[in-house]
Amino acid sequence: MNTLNHVLPTTYKPNHYNIELFDINTAENSFKGHVDIELNKNTTTMGNHSKIITDPSFITLNIRDIVIEEAYLIPLSSTAADENTPVFLPLSKEYNKEYEELTFQFPTEVVNTKNKFILAIDYKGRIQTNMCGFYRSDFISNYETKEQSFMLSTQFEATDARRAFPCFDEPSLKATFNVTISAPAKFTVLSNMPECKTLNEPHSTDNIIQHVFEKSPLMSTYLVAWAIGDFDYLETFTKNKIYGNNTKKLPIRIYTCKGKSEQGRFALSVAANVIDYFSELLKIPYPLPKIDLLCVESYSHNAMENFSLITFRPTAVLTDTIGKPFKNERDYDLAELEQHSSNPIVLQKIAYVVCHELAHQWFGNLVTMNWWDELWLNEGFATWLGYVAVSKFFPHWDVPSMVMYNSHEVALELDALKESHPIKVSVRNAKDIDQVFDSISYLKGCSILEMISSYIGMETFLQGVTLYLEKNKWKNATMYDLFDCISEADRNKTDVSECLSNWILKLGYPIVDVSYNHNQKEYILTKSRYLSSGEDSDDSTIWWVPLMLKNNQKICMNAREMTINANIENSFFFLNSASYGFYRVNYKDDSTFNSVLANFHELNSRAKIGLISDIESAGDYTRLLNILSKFSDERNVSDDEYYVWLKAINSLNQLKFIVSSDKKSVLKHVILRIVGEKRLYNKLLPYLANPLILQNCETKILRSQTYNLLLTTAGKLSNKQVLQGCRKIFDGEKSIFASNASTVVLDTIMSQEDTTTLLDFEKAKKLLFQSTLADQEIILNSLGSITNPKLFKSCFGLILEIEPMNLQYLAEAWGNNSVINVALWNFFKSNYDVIYKRISINPIVVDRFIRFSFRNLVGDDIKLDFENFFADKITDGFDRGVKQTIERIRRNTKMRETGSPKLSKYVENM
After folding, report:
1. Cα(299)–Cα(136) distance, rounded to whole angstroms?
2. By CB distance 3.0 to 4.6 Å, which of 29, 48, 155, 467 could disulfide with 485?
3. Across the strands, what pairs with 73?
4. d(Cα 603, Cα 609) in Å, to the nearest integer?
5. pTM over 0.85
6. Does residue 263 sit in helix, strand or coil?
């Protein structure tokens, strides 16, 4: 047995599945199924597998929440089975609950005579209600009448296909699939492939229709999908003929519940453009005959890349449009839709999620990682390529800075913990898999791809990627397959495997310390592993580090120390000049740092974010505030540099958890000074009164995001003018959401310690249950800003009232709220049993809640309390999140102990 991963025996390999679902009973949430699995007896080691069972009388596969009614084995000759082909019942069957495996034993004399069989299984299954497997979404279809509806859909990644049909549920065991589903005639039924025919179900008296779908190409079980519901749809086609040997345009549809399809128009248009783009960019046309986007009303993730039936949560695919009507369903383009969006900021999320999932159709679906330990080959690539596509179609969104803040920075923070993990991480069994769907696999994976592509050049990198896809399409691959192809495209000038292996196989990343030798006129660079705890690391890893100087010279640091001549740059010396390198830089001497500070205005937005992040991570709050003090001068940071502002404001907000209580009022004035009085009166307050003043601005999305951010910052700090403006809108007769500044209004009103009343809270809560799902996210984030202790209990009670899938928005706000977080922890402890019962329907929900809510707790007593509380708790599925939170609390405590006196002194002197 493989000592690293528990995998199925390789005695048999599945070639094809015939899946039939019928007797779907939504009153009892049950269904029946039949599956025929065509098997080949295997004699060689496959992919990830090194476990061979030589006795072919045993057949092992995966099931969970399934009851087997009958199973039998059909030996196959060169001709297909018919009614005269003998069938054999199992001698025994045994279920391993821990590994979710069912083993049948068949007569030895039967299995020894043939090499090809059909394993036929009749079974009963359960329609889940926890957003995984084959599950049910209940929702309100009409808010005025409170009419309830439901839909059925699937979420099989990572190991929940086994909940819907018995299968060999591992990514390397690819097969083809035929799916047949019987459902009431009033419902639309979808699957990965187009429907080829419909039949009246034999002997049915309930008007049941049998939907038969075309045979799929080779794919992994986790990518199989189907859905049943009362759907509307919009349809369009690719502009180019990319299907059927470039003879046909690809049909693309977006399916929604009744009455919502128009809200999917933007996502549909993004999909049509991006499929054409990826087909050309990767030089491999989209390989299936259609693609459907499906809005699923209850969803634990943003989306899932099922081959040609991509599923989304509503807020990741739907948005309202306003303005002129469209002539017909195909008469629109991205620019026009962006112009007529009622919430243009939501478009960024939708565009990125759609691009990410479409990237998966090549990276993950066409070519699949061999085992879950290399999930990053799927998710890192989809993250990276998703951003490439967004940048192509929306260059005015400053996507490089978006990637820097949303991806690169998040990965750096997590990977600075001892409780991080390598990108390629050991995954022993099914219980471990969900926890590797984290920022390391997605975002660090993306960052490493971004680093190598910027080093060797995008054109060369893409040539290697195309070679990788061509060599491995319809198969499984490893990182070395990818590295070899990129090196080949680079004509072996770069040994990509040597450069990147430590980045993938080792956890963490380096910090490069820069010192200046005045006598030798040279810079001395040393590198070591960076830990956010400030501890010295005994890690001996030597990472390949591209230094990325401003003059674009390809200088790499392959040793622990090196020197660089001071004359290498024409102006100031600055490493990682565009922040594509996944490492930190610390300028140890003031002269080098001050030269960077003096030229701050010359840095691009990514470099500014990276510099702020590096200084913050070093705990040098004097340098941090010196840099941030430059923000009040618009010559240093423009209103369109939203992500730079976002990094700055979040860095300032983190100081609230560090500075001593008696200095918080002084810190408040420091933050308001950085926002800038001139900017507040000349730009921000006029925008609050009338957001339409940016309507004709070419960068209105970025600028409105900056203005909303700065107004919210001032509002939360009780700036009188902002508070008055927000109160006027909040108490007015018009909908709060009629303004693009709705986030400002709600955050400001909810965050006032002295003036926010129960009446305000109840008004916002009422809005919560009357609003669209996108607006619900805004309201939940604002409700998490509560600082009035009289409202804490009412606020915490929302945990038991809102949909678990939306709890993360509250948790994020609570985690950033320095007033509420200790009270939340005490409430959580006291009510753990009822809270856990509510949110543990899906371990991902629990994991997010803990990591988001408690990441900024501070204090040795709280750390000890946190450790003791979870010591005797079952934490399967979120134990890594608990450990990482404990380490963050320890880090926060040390930062307060070492940084608070210095910070308080600096703030006092200002």
Report:
1. 10
2. 467
3. 88, 119
4. 10
5. yes
6. helix
Question: CA-CA distance, 858 to 822, in Å (whole number)?
Answer: 9
Distance CA 530, CA 581 (A): 14
Q: Which has the minimum average pLDDT: 81-85, 405-409, 823-827?
A: 81-85
> How many Cβ atoms are within 10 Å of 669's Cβ, its own excluded?
12
Distance CA(530)–CA(116), nearest Å, equals 54
> How far, in Å, CA of 823 to CA of 795, rounded?
11
Which residue in 357, 616, 641, 887 is the catalytic one? 357
Predicted confidence at residue 3, as pLDDT, reads: 44
What pLDDT is stored for residue 297 in this prediction? 92
Which one, of 131, 2, 127, 114, lies nearest residue 66 by Cα?
127
Is 396 among the annotated ligand-binding positions?
no
Q: Distance between CA atoms of 836 and 833, rounded to whole angstroms?
A: 5
- Candidates 738, 705, 709; CA nearest to 722 is 709
d(CA 93, CA 103): 5
For residue 582, give the nearest of 687, 696, 666, 502 by alpha carbon: 502
550 — pLDDT class (breaks 50, 70, 90): confident
Q: Tens of pLDDT along 614-662?
A: 999 998 888 999 999 899 888 899 999 999 999 999 999 998 888 777 7
Mean of the pLDDT values across residues 578-587? 95
pLDDT higher at 603 or 669: 603
340 is in an annotated binding site: no
Closest CA to 270 of 418, 430, 389, 442: 389
DSSP state, 530? -
Question: Of all residues in the chain, what percent carry a pLDDT higher than 70?
Answer: 95
Identify whether the C-beta of residue 456 lies closer than 8 Å to the C-beta of residue 494: yes
3-class secondary structure, 574: coil
Using only the alpha carbons of the chain, give its radius of gyration. Answer: 28
- For range 8-37, the mean pLDDT: 96
Contacts of 698 (CB under 8 A, 6+ apart): 396
Tens digit of pLDDT for each residue in 329-388?
Answer: 454 578 777 777 767 778 999 999 999 999 999 999 999 999 999 999 999 999 999 999
pLDDT tens figures, 270-329: 999 999 999 999 999 999 999 999 999 988 889 999 999 999 999 999 987 654 444 454
Whether 357 is catalytic: yes
**356 annotated as a binding-site residue:** yes
What are the structural domains, with CATH classification, of the chain? 1-228 (2.60.40.1730), 230-361 (1.10.390.10), 362-508 (1.10.390.10), 751-910 (1.25.50.20)
Q: Give which of 676, 684, 677 is closest to 629, Cα–Cα.
A: 676
The Cα 101–Cα 8 span in angstroms is 8
How many Å apart are CA 180 and CA 161, to the nearest integer?
16
With 0-12 CB in 10 A as exposed, 13-18 as middle and 19+ as buried, what is 431?
middle
Query: Pairing state of beta strands 176-184 and 12-25?
Result: parallel
| pLDDT for residue 208 | 93
Given a contact cutoff of 8 angstroms between Cβ atoms, the answer to whether 814 and 821 are in contact is: yes
CB atoms within 10 A of CB 463: 18
User: How far is 824 from 855, CA to CA, in rounded Å?
Assistant: 12
Q: Give the C-alpha separation, 877 to 907, whole Å.
A: 42
